Amino acid sequence: MRTNQGFAGDDRGTFGGRMRRAQIERAAAEVLSEVGYAAASVSRIADRAGVSKGVITYHFATKDEIFRRLAVQLLDGCAAHITDRVPDEMPPALRLRARIHAELEYFASRRIEFLAMAEVMANHRDEDFGRAFEGIAESDIDTVAGILREGQEAGEFRPLDAHEAAHLIDAAKNGVLDRWAADESLDLEPMSASLLDFVARAVRADGA
Amino acid sequence: MRTNQGFAGDDRGTFGGRMRRAQIERAAAEVLSEVGYAAASVSRIADRAGVSKGVITYHFATKDEIFRRLAVQLLDGCAAHITDRVPDEMPPALRLRARIHAELEYFASRRIEFLAMAEVMANHRDEDFGRAFEGIAESDIDTVAGILREGQEAGEFRPLDAHEAAHLIDAAKNGVLDRWAADESLDLEPMSASLLDFVARAVRADGA
Amino acid sequence: MRTNQGFAGDDRGTFGGRMRRAQIERAAAEVLSEVGYAAASVSRIADRAGVSKGVITYHFATKDEIFRRLAVQLLDGCAAHITDRVPDEMPPALRLRARIHAELEYFASRRIEFLAMAEVMANHRDEDFGRAFEGIAESDIDTVAGILREGQEAGEFRPLDAHEAAHLIDAAKNGVLDRWAADESLDLEPMSASLLDFVARAVRADGA
Amino acid sequence: MRTNQGFAGDDRGTFGGRMRRAQIERAAAEVLSEVGYAAASVSRIADRAGVSKGVITYHFATKDEIFRRLAVQLLDGCAAHITDRVPDEMPPALRLRARIHAELEYFASRRIEFLAMAEVMANHRDEDFGRAFEGIAESDIDTVAGILREGQEAGEFRPLDAHEAAHLIDAAKNGVLDRWAADESLDLEPMSASLLDFVARAVRADGA
DNA sequence: GATGAATGAGCCTTCATTCAT
DNA sequence: GATGAATGAAGGCTCATTCAT
């Protein structure tokens, strides 16, 4: 007898299986974005996906796994998108700008998924109640800090604590995404422009 | 129909009653900060407070009311703190700086409460799943936008979309608080300095 | 230290005590008539009486005691009212009519109390879930059966099973009271007339 | 929002599902008849049915729904039984008699269900505490009133207020059923005969 | 692969009752 | 006499998960 434990986090499996998992993940994202983490029950997800509750347990070991995958996939996709679009050779100021722009661009077509991911990252905890996504953005921030340091050496950026500034840039960017995602009537384009302008001014060298 | 139990939203009541309510709110804040919104059950709060579950229902009509009060009290306290410390006569650049500093200062001695409030604001929903604290910071942000416009007229600040910039400043500030609150080992002072510097640079006029 | 057990079912006590008990009983009757047995909680009764919950426990050993007293008092009052108004010397047909009329008349000015009593009698159970007011009307019905037998001997009433007929008369009378009590807009007078007519016809001897 | 659990009001579903629901309804009826409305908890019903509490929530949306179905099914079944057995062409006096007889006959083999239904009808309230089964018998009574009027025109019945008389007949009939159901040792047959006789006498024309 | 059924722990809340003051 | 406070059991219900078919 084949146990369903084997499927957990498994990207192998039949084509149909992958399809089903994708369908369930999509439903989960919609439910999360609409009713929030606390009310996102397996029942509601099954309803939304138009399948029985059993199907979900068959394809995912636990509910948490669905949520985790949702967040991880989006995070990974975003990272790949950025890497694709931001060559290492770009000068620092442009590279910083390109990274931020690429991230906003990535989520611009994934509002629901972003909201779902935000719910998961804010609420997902391990069994000891520790935040499961604590520090997930750290490497990203380190990359930005690196760019800032590079730019300082090149004289493009002013003296500042690169690590702190990277966090501030990240927070401002997340603020833009959060606000945009929460209000469907908002247009990301001008918000994005204001953000890029704001950040550029905050870090540029005096003579620049 | 009002029963003679439950002081829901009642600021009157005996000294003992106010004490108990404060004790329960404190326990609720601790639990929220430690295990998160989803796991913050009445049982856990009662355990933490060292009282029976019934006591909580006796003093608060619903669990949500405790959470709401927690958030509202802190928000109100913070607003009062800022108003006290930031006279309207201050010139815009100083006023902006003073506001941010006052807010960070207020939460610096209320880490647990800040975490609890953040959990509540991120998760509290009304019965139709709408975010209950949606737009709660809007008036605050409008105030900052007003300061920015004033500063622009005075030539202290550069041309920018005041409303967008106010949101970016808010997001950066919240990012600092979130990061600090999540990691007990962090020192708010230097983070605060970086933030103030970052914001000042982002908005100052070219000639300044 | 004086325990409150002593008061249970106690008609002695101070004047103030009797007043309080009456006030509580009145409130209990109102609550019962408005929300029904299941929702008639001590809290709601205390609210209605404008006293604290503690007062109720002070004057009555248990909630059930209040309810029991409510029913018993009304039942006793009704019995006394009937006895007062229906002399044993009346001829059977008149006596039957007078009894029914007296009972309707008694409750006519006690709608709330009647509803409360009906709730209690329908729902009150002892600790083994046996109906506490089972057979409470039996002696009344026996009295009516006696009148029927007397009337048969006197040739006023037709041959019939006196005990069964007494039950049927009782049921018809209760039906009138129930319907009237449930609908404030109803006028008891014509209903009463129809009932008396109905019963008289049902039992009268052929030649009468 | 409909979850995929709960068949609330659903007559479709698998054979097994219908069986379970019937089993649960049977257990609920037994519990209601034995301990009364107030003590008829989901736990007790589950115990009686020999299933876990969760099963009940799985098959019925709420406890009230079980009770409502219990009452409605019995009421509907009774109405159908009467319609089947009482042709419209019968002369009024016979038709009246046949209706009453059919109803008693229907419940004669359903003592437990009758008791359960009586508990529900006496106690079920909507959220504003209004009686949920208020006036449920009204159409039935109107039918009887119609028969009485027909019989008056045909000279079979005496002049009387048909609507009032119909209510009295209904009350007498319910009295018989209540008494019989409450006492297992009673034989419905002679009670039924007395009732039919009583009613016939009460309404017949003088010359009949 | 998929499903409906079942479970049992846990949730929030209501409640009758006890008790110190 | 009276009160507010506290208790703990019980209530109905939701839910993630398991499992036989």
UniProtKB/TrEMBL annotation, chains A, B, C, D:
Organism expressing this protein natively: Microbacterium aurantiacum
Domain HTH tetR-type: 18-78
Domain of life: Bacteria
DNA-binding region: 41-60
Protein name in the entry: TetR/AcrR family transcriptional regulator
Record key words, sorted: DNA-binding, Transcription, Transcription regulation
